[in-house]
Amino acid sequence: MTGHATPPELPPGLLEEYLAGMRPVLAALAGLAERLAAARTDLAALEALRRETHKIHGSAGSFGFMEVSRLAAGMEATVKDWISWPGDPEVDRGSLTRWFVARLAEMLGLEVPRPAAAAPRPRVGPPPRPSQATPRPTQQPLRNPPPPVPPPKQPPAPPATPTRTPPPPPPRALAGGPKVAPAPPPPAPAKPKAEPPARSPAKADLPWILAPDAAHAEPPAPVERPPPAPPKPAPAPSPPPAVAPSAPAGDVPEIVFVEDDAALAELLAYGLSTRGYRFVAYRNGREALKELLALDVRGTHPLLLLDVDLPALDGYSILDALQRARPGTYRVVFTTVHGTEEEQLRGLEAGALDYLVKPISLRVALEKIKRWVGR
Predict the structure, then answer these.
(1) What is the residue extent of each domain of the chain?
(2) Which CATH number fits domain 14-108: 1.20.120, 2.60.120, 3.40.50, 1.10.760?
(3) In this structure, which long-range contacts are made by residues 298-302, counting pairs with CB atoms below 8 Å and at least 24 apart in sequence?
(4) Measured over all CA atoms, what is the biggest interatomic distance in the chain, rounded to whole angstroms?
(5) Which CATH number fits domain 251-373: 3.40.50.2300, 2.40.10.10, 2.40.50.140, 3.40.50.620?
(6) Torsion of CA 122, 124, 125, 127, to 10 degrees
(7) Residue 228 and residue 32 in contact, taking contact as beta carbons nearer than 8 Å
């Protein structure tokens, strides 16, 4: 599914030509993503990325790719902020650009390109100096080599005289040390002893057999052990409270956004996921109102990013219904393409916390969300 409808006014073959031209563009974007992953402050890569997203924003809609055009518009606004704040570490620019390229390829029905190998940068400066090591001259063979000189003769060695090794002297005691006694002579063979008459085993011989005098003794009295203490009776269960305590708010979403633009919704969801926010998203105004009225917020006040132009039910109607049914439960921020001063004042007077104008820069949106949510 490419998410587009071919306009009927396009001549035959023009759409195929556009898609064929987008393949090298996607490959170039993939290369820019790798450059930003290696160096997030690469201004040349950022400028090239801004130009490419601007072109896609302006051309994709003409070929029926409206979601591609809106996604490129949001990415273009984000890259403009990156250029204005090149050292901002809040967003992983390489990862976001990779995701952008993958989503473009999916929407256009093309394969995700592999980044091309970076070309070696030209060398700036004087040429490298040659190696200081001088080559060794090649040794030429001599024409008339001198005859080899025989080694000098060594006088014959005298015959070796066999020497006797004297027996080792008896060990002597060291001064101030223990005396060393000579080795005792080997013991004489022991004579066989007559076997003693058989006798009854004694206690000293077999400790597990009682002595004869103790055979008729009374067995020792068993040691009386105190009976084990009876187990303590379990406390009677307390009656359940009338109202069950509320569960922790770890499962309550911190952010709820209602956005019918699929491209912008995906871009915003990607940014919220990278920051670790808990969020839910809706595409239809009527469905969103139903869920918002039934959501158990458990004492919290989730942030509600509410699009003004929604199908089935617009954002102003949703805010009015929430203020009547659940006043003060949600903190509402409007998002819309209408950025006029009158439209913004209308949203603020209706009770909204703030106003975001589309196309929304992801960096600006995440920075404002961090202030609104408190983390």
Answers:
(1) 14-108, 251-373
(2) 1.20.120
(3) 298/246, 298/247, 298/248, 298/249, 298/252, 299/246, 299/249, 300/249, 300/252, 300/254, 301/328, 301/329, 301/330, 301/331, 302/252, 302/253, 302/254, 302/255, 302/256, 302/329, 302/330, 302/331
(4) 130
(5) 3.40.50.2300
(6) -10
(7) no
CA-closest candidate to residue 85, choices 120, 43, 27: 43
From 108, 95, 100, select the one nearest 37 (Cα to Cα): 95
pLDDT (tens, 9 = 90+) of the chain, 375 residues, equals 444 555 546 677 888 888 999 999 999 999 999 999 999 899 999 999 999 998 898 888 878 888 898 899 889 899 988 888 877 777 789 999 999 999 999 999 999 887 655 444 444 445 555 544 444 544 444 455 555 555 555 555 555 545 555 555 444 444 444 444 444 455 555 554 555 444 444 444 444 444 444 444 455 555 556 555 555 555 544 444 333 333 355 689 999 999 988 888 888 898 899 899 999 999 999 999 999 999 999 999 999 999 998 888 899 999 999 999 999 999 999 998 887 888 888 889 999 999 888 888 888 889 899 999 987
